[in-house]
Amino acid sequence: MLEDYANVFNERKLYLRFSGLMQAFIESFKGSKIKGNVAKRGTLFNHYYSEFRYHLYCAYYFLGQLDLLENTIIKQYNELKPFIEFQNEVKIEYDSFIVHEYLLRIMPFLNTLFILQDRLMVVIGLFLNMEFQDPVRKPNESNKVYNKKVKNFRSKLQSFASYATNYSDILKPFPKEVQELVVNYWNQNGQEIRQYRNLNQHQFNLLEEAYIVREPTERFILYLPDNPNERNFENLTYDKNRVAIDYFKSEIQKFHDIIEEIMEVLGVTPERHEFATSTSPNANKIKDYNEGDLMKIWVIKNEAILFSVGEKTPNGEAAKLALRKIKNKIVGLKWDIK
Fold this sequence. Notes:
10 helices, alpha+beta, 3-stranded antiparallel sheet, 2 domains, 338 residues, 7 strands
């Protein structure tokens, strides 16, 4: 369950400096009046920070599911093995509904890492209070051309690749050490795993080489192509025997390391992860609703907490938020894998 991943991250000591970023951000406001642009920046930072943390949890959740499904595929295969007459096969093209469950989780993982890459520099930019100016308008440039240029520039501010390649010098305002970490990560790791995502997104050529290999140990494996930047699927090669799940785990560890190194450069102190289930920007605004408009139910393990809005005071704020706890019997989701 996603709600367990705060504890998982704490146990594995993952992203502890990133967890401390929120506290560092709050401390940076000491002595400031929280209104106007300051309040707007705080709202944006909270939104992107919460989104980023949620997608971190999702990425590890998908990896955990891939591990579970790989083991389940082998269990299913072992049930069949006594009835199979082998010759000299070194690998088996194995297909079952569990294999399809496995393959269904490849793209969500890659998309999640894609989102995390793109959001990283947005979060850091907000933390550092960076402001990027729209492109200068050229003489005699039409409104249509200029507006398109501005729209393109602003979209680039949401792309990790733009920072890593220093599009329009947008990486230059960041500390020198951060610039070096971003560029090195992109060149050594970040660009390639993004290419795998694009390969499957646009050509659907990432899920074809799935086998049970028999040596050195029997294992279900999805092989990734050696050349994910290849646009012609007929030219994809698989000579390196790159195992998808092993590669994904290695790459997310590299992503973890780059984040923590950047946080250290920014002077962020490690903090334990606190449990949270919602990333909605309206999660803390229930008091703004009228009586009877909305109830929030927060299910945690074997308990459900109910929040509801009471009558409003003359100044328009909720006079009370009713809170009640009830028992919850469904604490997990179990797949019926046979």
